[in-house]
Design a protein that fits this description.
- The complex is a heterodimer of chains A (about 325) and B (about 425).
- Chain A has helices spanning about 5-50, 65-75, 75-105, 115-125, 130-140, 145-150, 155-160, 175-200, 205-215, 220-230, 230-245, 250-255, 270-280, 285-310; strands at about 50-55, 60-65.
- Chain A is flat.
- In chain A, helix 1 packs across helix 14 and helix 13 runs antiparallel to helix 14 (about 285-310).
- Chain A is an all-alpha fold and about 325 residues long.
- Chain B folds into two domains: about 40-175 and about 325-380, Periplasmic binding protein-like II (D-Maltodextrin-Binding Protein, domain 2), CATH 3.40.190; about 175-320 and about 390-430, D-Maltodextrin-Binding Protein, domain 2 (3-Layer(aba) Sandwich), CATH 3.40.190.10.
- In chain B, the strands form two sheets. In chain B, strands 1, 2, 3, 4, 10 and 11 form a six-stranded mixed sheet that branches. In chain B, strands 7-6-8-5-9 form a five-stranded mixed sheet.
- The longest helix of chain B has 18 residues, at about 1-20.
- Chain B is globular, with a radius of gyration of 23 Å.
- Classes of the chains: A mainly alpha (about 325), B alpha/beta (about 425).
- At the A-B interface, helix 1, helix 11, helix 13 and helix 14 of A face helix 1, helix 3 and helix 15 of B.
Chain lengths: ~325, ~425
């Protein structure tokens, strides 16, 4: 190789890298532009709206600084919405992750008909959430199927120990409404989490299990010592998506509890509160403040999760 | 992952961003713009000498609203056809707004792309007027000699803005009456004491989950508060009147209906609303409006029931509450005069006669014939007070009452004090705003 040919190759390689880079920038330019305008732009616009008195028809009025943020925290219904959303996240996220992981491990076995089971477990996730919620309301009403079955099975005395009447109105009672929606969403979303975990499970090399088997590890030990720790990237991804989804609870609460989060604010979520402020009270500036507060909460929780679970998955 | 987090977080804020995509137009100027002055009187709804000729106005009026049934659509189409025959120079472009009506309208207001004439529920009358979304109609009344005195006062009141101007004309109305299963209740109770006596006699009867189906809120409870001399605010809307002995006694009386097993919510009966409870014979008495009739005839045709007035309480006067919706002209409408031509017909005597003849609505005017079988509900309009839209922030007041009331029922404590306290706080906040 002569000095001249080596220089030519470097030059041609440099040109190739530049053109590749240009092509890459061209490919990401449009989505990045959309991201900047629609996402980052919306955040900045919401921030702008939140510090003014805002009328959707006439635009910005007087500058009011952080008054909207202060007023929101003085509203007991907003505090209740935060409490509900946090409770929902604390109960729903681990429950749904556990069910999703259980289903994923189940359908990851070499079972007959596992494709059918994968599809069956995932099916509630692709059904319309409105339709599923309405179905759930019918199942959970006082003379609905759930109360009928527990009565037929003779389980009412057990339920009565916990204070539940034979004709318990699960969604209409403020003491049980949110837990009913948690169960509903655990059922509908666990299929999606199953898929996420299934993808993670299949990245674990089979040799690890073979080595463990040679060392005499049982299936229970394999799960806790191999599968569960090696699913750490999967846990991080699922937990992050789950917490974000939990804090964005809206459609099921809206359908089951109406716009006012009935009964007695039991189904008032932060997003439903925001929606009411914007579209029923036309208080768009305060709604923007609520949106930004929610954004801050989600971002903080995600950063905490990142610290807990370590670095992000490599994919 | 960082980008994912940012994108997902940003998408939440986009909810707020999307909700607030406003612009900065000049405020509405109000009034009319292009109608030719002078001319003949309008037949419908006009009593004073008009000063402008509606027949000189030509063009298209875009009409929009919600639609709850095919029967309602047919009744409106028939009414529009009658309008086209009377006013051939103004074409009507009617579009139903599907989905969540206030949400869709909010986006229309933000984009200044509003129908010329549209429905406004009484609960939105004042807020939409105060936000500048609606055109004041007073100049039209003067210009075209339109007389509003034919409307039942309770139906017109919710569409008065804070500035005293009128922002809508009630397209129809409904009062809350007492529907009772005639197989269970032979004679309509005329007093609250009679109501309790009749309901107590029905307790435990086969099939009945409770004698009366009740809503745990002011949407029905307000009628009983009024019946016992109580109130939420003073007539001028400026003074909190929740914490009075009469109001407290009325709320306690209403709670006691639940406590004594006389009343139960539809939800606790496993029904979606009290019409279903009446139809399924879970309850013998329900307090509803004219919307009950089509539901009963279509779903429960074998259940015989009759209408009675809301029983009289300690106030000694007949009283109930009413609900209505109006036709309003958009402040950003591009064809306001055409919209007015259509509005004065639809809310006038002839248009409303045609509309209510369709059997889906009751008249909001005193000079329109009462549809068959609706005598009680229409007669109550003479003394009915608005069930919504009579004060600013009433939605928050209703919510505070209902949340506290529901808690008292579900905790089985049945104490009016907490309901009164929560409602009083909400009324104070609403009045302060």
């Amino acid at each position: 190789m002569t000095i001249a040919s080596a220089r030519d190759r470097r030059v041609s390689t440099g040109i190739g890298q530049r053109s590749e880079a240009l092509a890459a920038y061209a490919f990401i330019a449009i989505p990045m532009l959309l991201f900047l305008v629609l996402n980052i732009g919306s955040i900045l616009y919401a921030l702008f709206i939140s510090v003014f008195q805002w009328n959707i028809r006439s635009g910005a009025g007087a500058f009011i600084g952080i008054a909207n943020y202060q007023n929101v925290f003085k509203d007991p219904i907003f505090i209740r919405a935060i409490q509900n959303s946090v409770y929902y996240a604390i109960v729903w996220v681990p429950l749904t992750m556990a069910v999703g992981l259980f289903l994923a491990v189940l359908v990851n076995q070499k079972l007959r008909g596992r494709t059918f089971f994968r599809a069956a477990f995932y099916f509630p996730a692709i059904a319309s959430s409105a339709a599923v919620t309405v179905l759930w309301i019918f199942l959970a009403q006082p003379d609905g199927l759930f109360n009928g079955i527990r009565g037929a099975l003779g389980l009412n005395p057990i339920f009565q120990l916990f204070g539940f009447a034979p004709n318990q109105n699960w969604i209409g009672d403020s003491h049980t409404a949110l837990n009913s929606v948690i169960l509903l969403n655990a059922w509908t979303t666990s299929g999606t989490f199953m898929l996420f975990y299934l993808a993670s499970l299949q990245t674990i090399p089979g040799e690890v299990y073979e080595a463990a088997a040679i060392d005499g590890a049982g299936s229970w030990q394999m799960f806790w010592r191999i599968t569960f720790p090696l699913l750490k990237p999967g846990h991080y991804f699922v937990a992050t998506v789950a917490v974000i989804g939990a804090l964005q609870l809206f459609d099921q609460a809206r359908i089951a509890g109406g716009t006012t989060g009935d009964p007695a604010n039991a189904l008032m979520s932060v997003v439903l509160y925001l929606y009411n402020l914007a579209f029923f009270k036309f208080d768009f500036d305060r709604a923007a403040a609520v949106g930004l507060i929610l954004f801050a909460i989600i971002l903080t929780l995600t950063l905490i999760q990142r610290r807990l679970f370590g670095s992000a998955p490599s994919w | 992952m960082r980008r994912s987090v940012l994108a997902l977080g940003a998408s939440i804020v986009m909810i707020a961003g999307a909700c607030t995509s406003g612009s900065t137009p000049a405020p509405s100027t109000g009034g009319t713009t292009s109608a030719a002055p002078g001319g003949s009187a309008e037949a419908s709804g006009a009593s004073a000498a008009p000063s402008a000729d509606l027949s000189a106005i030509t063009g298209t009026a875009k009409l929009s609203g919600w639609q709850s049934s095919d029967a309602e659509n047919k009744a409106l189409q028939d009414t529009v056809t009658a309008f086209q025959a009377a006013y051939p120079n103004v074409k009507v472009d009617y579009k139903v707004i599907t989905g969540d009506y206030p949400t869709v309208m909010a986006t229309n207001f933000a984009s200044k792309n509003v129908p010329d004439l549209f429905y406004v529920d009484a609960s939105f009358g004042q807020p939409w007027a105060d936000q500048g979304f609606l055109e004041p109609l007073d100049d039209y009344f003067t210009k075209y000699g339109f007389d509003t005195s034919a409307f039942f006062p309770g139906y017109l009141a919710p569409f008065k803005g804070s500035d005293g101007k009128t922002y809508g004309l009630p397209k129809d109305g409904n009062t809350i009456g007492m529907a009772y299963n005639t197989a269970e209740v032979q004679t309509a109770p005329t007093s609250l004491a009679d109501l309790v006596t009749a309901a107590t006699a029905l307790k435990g009867k086969d099939g009945l989950k409770a004698p009366i189906c009740l809503n745990p809120g002011l949407d029905r409870g307000l009628a009983f508060i009024y019946a016992q001399g109580g109130s939420i605010v003073s007539d001028d809307g400026k003074t909190n009147q929740v914490d009075t002995p009469q109001t407290k006694a009325a709320v306690q009386w209403y709670l006691d209906l639940f406590k004594n097993g006389i009343g139960m919510t539809a939800s606790d009966m496993g029904d979606d609303w009290c019409g279903t409870s009446l139809g399924k014979k879970h309850a013998a008495i329900a307090f509803e409006g004219g919307w009950l009739d089509p539901a009963m005839s279509s779903t429960y045709p074998n259940v015989k029931y009759a209408w009675g007035q809301i029983p009289t309480g300690s106030s000694g006067s007949p009283v109930t509450i009413s609900y209505t919706a109006a036709y309003s002209i958009g402040a950003d409408s591009k064809d306001k005069d055409q919209a007015w031509v259509l509005l004065q017909f639809l809310a006038g005597k002839d248009g409303m006669t045609k509309w209510t003849a369709g059997g889906v609505a009751l008249p909001s005017r005193t000079d329109v014939p009462t549809p068959t079988g609706k005598d009680v509900l229409v007669a109550q309009a003479q003394f009915a007070k608005p069930g919504s839209g009579f004060m600013k922030g009433y939605g928050d007041v209703q919510k505070a009452f209902q949340d506290a009331f529901t808690k008292e029922i579900q905790d089985k404590t049945y104490n009016a004090d907490s309901v009164i306290a929560a409602t009083k706080t909400a009324v104070d906040a609403a009045l302060a705003s």
